[in-house]
Write a structure and sequence with these properties.
Number of domains: 1
Largest sheet: 7 strands, mixed
Shape: globular
CATH class: Alpha Beta
Radius of gyration: 16 Å
Length: 187
């Protein structure tokens, strides 16, 4: 199975996924795409000698260049790992059921436009939630509304801080993203 990783930020999930599948005969990280030239994901791609591609909003919504590149590479699964651009219907229609995302809350809570990272965690703290977690879901035309694949909960205690929640969420992401990707081998 050939996988393309899409990321915008530091690339911690990208690096973890690359390391996890390095040398795997059944799952190959074949391409890394980022809309941020200084993204850590691009650095990880270079370090592991994985082809990478800088993309713009137009590459997602208007141009067929990226779609053609992904089809030419015979990509089976597109994995959003901290990718902050909205995936438009034009793009989704070319990869229906083959694009997955991770979201740092238990959807449907704290989903939608602008709901990522610290924005979510601060709301969890402000609302005195007892639990939070991560959600893996398919990508559709609406932010964070695709069919849920799996959710993993973490408990929020009364002494929780932004830093401690971020650490717990990150640990869950690093532990579970490779498992979710692996689950697509059986489909």
């Amino acid at each position: 199975m050939k996988v393309a990783l899409f990321a915008s930020g530091r690339g911690s999930n990208v690096e973890n996924i690359i390391r996890f599948f390095d040398g795997n005969k059944r799952i190959n990280i074949s391409l890394i795409c980022s809309n941020n030239k200084s993204s850590g994901a691009i650095l990880h791609a270079k370090n592991y000698k994985i082809p990478h591609f800088f993309l713009t909003k137009d590459d997602l919504s208007k141009s067929k260049t990226l779609i053609n590149k992904l089809h030419h590479a015979k990509i089976d699964l597109l994995v959003l790992a901290g990718f902050l651009l909205k995936i438009p219907a034009f793009f989704i229609n070319n990869f229906d059921g083959k694009i997955i995302n991770i979201h740092p809350s238990l959807l449907p809570k704290y989903g939608g436009k602008g709901m990522y990272g610290d924005n979510i965690h601060n709301l969890v703290l402000r609302n005195k939630e007892k639990k939070t977690g991560i959600t893996f879901h398919y990508v559709n035309e609406n932010y964070d509304e695709g069919k849920i694949i799996a959710q993993f909960e973490i408990q929020v205690d009364k002494f929780e801080t932004l830093k401690s929640i971020k650490k717990k969420i990150s640990q869950e992401e690093l532990l579970n993203y490779p498992k979710i990707i692996s689950s697509f081998l059986d489909e």
